[in-house]
Amino acid sequence: MADVINFAHRGASAYCPENTMAAFVKAIELGATGIETDVQMTKDGQLVLIHDEQLQRTTGSPKLVKDATLEEIKQMDAGSWFGPEFHGERIPTLAELLELVSGTQTLVNIELKNGVVLYPGLEEAVIAEIRRFGLSDQAVISSFNHYSLVKCKLLAPEIRTGILYMEGLYEPWEYAAGIKADALHAYFYAVLPEWVEQAAAKGIVYHPFTVNDSVTMRRLVEAGVAGIITDYPDRLASILREAEEDA
């Protein structure tokens, strides 16, 4: 039970503006043992952590990430939309997050956002940063773009990959084994105890998303998942402590 990875979804995004350093730091303070984030590429080829392809929702800029330089993005306020106390929070680079977790045991789940916008060289650039910080054993690369995951595994077989998908994928552990993925990042409805068991027999683990209520967290922990992605890492940390005490 205690080994379940507590992945903070976009950081502690229930308490801080998502995908900011404030959210990442808060996640660790609240007991997260992993951080989930989204990576995209700027006009000048820099890796930044943001979920939407457009900057509008979190910064107010109508630009797409791909059409803005890192210098332009670093001038944008990515915190005020969440609350005035976060005014001045910036969109971080992947390097900033990797530097934060370097020297710790915190895992990093990096989602490649390359479905709507295709970023040439994104896989190579992300892998290069992970290796530069010596974090290959602390990283998981995930994506809804499974071609991208295959490419990552070919480029860096030592880095784990996770298949993002919704419901309805038949025997996903067979599919995962076929593309040499290590984990199933399934929408939480698509996780049953017998499926977790069948996946484990293939050496494949489950990291379901995005799980925010305590009842579902407990159900998934009891089902034997290896990790849970949540906006509320404190809730999951509490449940994992309870499970450890009851064991």
UniProtKB/TrEMBL annotation:
<dbReference type="GO" id="GO:0008081">
    <property type="term" value="F:phosphoric diester hydrolase activity"/>
</dbReference>
<dbReference type="Pfam" id="PF03009">
    <property type="entry name" value="GDPD"/>
</dbReference>
<dbReference type="InterPro" id="IPR017946">
    <property type="entry name" value="PLC-like_Pdiesterase_TIM-brl"/>
</dbReference>
<dbReference type="GO" id="GO:0006629">
    <property type="term" value="P:lipid metabolic process"/>
</dbReference>
<dbReference type="InterPro" id="IPR030395">
    <property type="entry name" value="GP_PDE_dom"/>
</dbReference>
<protein>
    <submittedName>
        <fullName>Glycerophosphodiester phosphodiesterase</fullName>
    </submittedName>
</protein>
<feature type="domain" description="GP-PDE">
    <location>
        <begin position="4"/>
        <end position="240"/>
    </location>
</feature>
